[in-house]
UniProtKB/TrEMBL annotation:
Organism: Photinus pyralis
InterPro entries associated with the record: Glutathione-S-Trfase_C-like, Glutathione-S-Trfase_C_sf, Glutathione_S-Trfase, Glutathione_S-Trfase_N, GST_C, Thioredoxin-like_sf
Protein name in the entry: Uncharacterized protein
Subunit structure: Homodimer.
UniProt-listed SUPFAM superfamilies: GST C-terminal domain-like, Thioredoxin-like
Pfam families documented for this protein: GST_C, GST_N_3
Domain GST C-terminal: 88-207
PANTHER family per record: GLUTATHIONE S TRANSFERASE D10, ISOFORM A-RELATED (PTHR43969), GLUTATHIONE S TRANSFERASE E13, ISOFORM A-RELATED (PTHR43969:SF8)
Source organism superkingdom: Eukaryota
One annotated GO molecular function: glutathione transferase activity
Residue ranges constituting the GST N-terminal domain according to the UniProt record: 1-82
A single GO BP: glutathione metabolic process
Length: 216
């Protein structure tokens, strides 16, 4: 088994894959791709992924891109009898539904990043959209420990990575979003959380702080 992951820790999509890799305790070689220097547009990256985006996984000749696809592939290939991605159709559909939701809110995260990069500000409308995302999750998590129930899944990994990126701009208020705060707290207790997440979040928070403090 020779796994290679092209990634950047600041990317929420890459952090989601790192969580799955560490949860499965897989040996992986990492290739750093600096998105800020547009390295994802390099010819060798474009050859692997015509969309010129990371993460990208290589596995003995197979090339998989998109964090959701990579995580499902890793669990189905190397996590036999693993609860990270259920084996039954209903369980998989539940996880996939939340991964589609993650795709939807990631688009808003991408819009936020473009807004900060181009205007050095975050509009009140954008803040309201983020609050609405927190509200939806908070209501859903009232009676759940994890997104799909009692067990952590790749849906948690993807949503966690996206929500923590939003959290760099608009902190999850535990008084308003107690269930989201509790869920984040549970995730932060995972034994592989710090090694997969801390550096990327710190880098992202620092980058956003720099952009928001700079004048156009």
């Amino acid at each position: 088994m020779v796994l290679t992951l092209y990634k950047m820790d600041m990317s929420s999509c890459c952090r989601a894959v790192l969580l799955t890799i560490k949860a499965l305790d897989l040996p992986v070689e990492y290739v750093e791709v600096n998105l800020l220097k547009r390295e994802a547009s390099a010819p060798h990256i474009a050859k692997l992924n015509p969309r010129c985006k990371i993460p990208i996984l290589e596995d003995n000749g197979a090339v998989i891109w998109d964090s959701h696809a990579i995580n499902a592939y890793l669990v189905q290939t190397y996590g036999k009898d693993c609860k990270l991605y259920p084996s039954d159709a209903a369980g998989q559909a539940n996880v996939q539904g939340w991964l589609y939701f993650d795709t939807e809110i990631f688009a808003k995260l991408n819009d936020l990043m473009v807004q900060v990069s181009t205007t050095r500000t975050i509009s009140e409308q954008t803040y309201e959209e983020v609050r609405n995302i927190y509200h939806v999750l908070n209501n859903y998590l009232k009676e759940k420990k994890w997104i799909t129930g009692d067990n952590v899944t790749i849906a948690d990994f993807s949503l966690l990575s996206t929500i923590e990126s939003f959290n760099c701009c608009l902190e999850v208020d535990p008084n308003k979003y107690a269930n989201v705060a509790r869920w984040l707290g549970e995730a932060q207790k995972l034994p592989f959380y710090e090694v997969t997440t801390k550096k990327g979040i710190e880098d992202l928070a620092g980058f956003l702080k720099f952009l928001l403090s700079a004048k156009k």
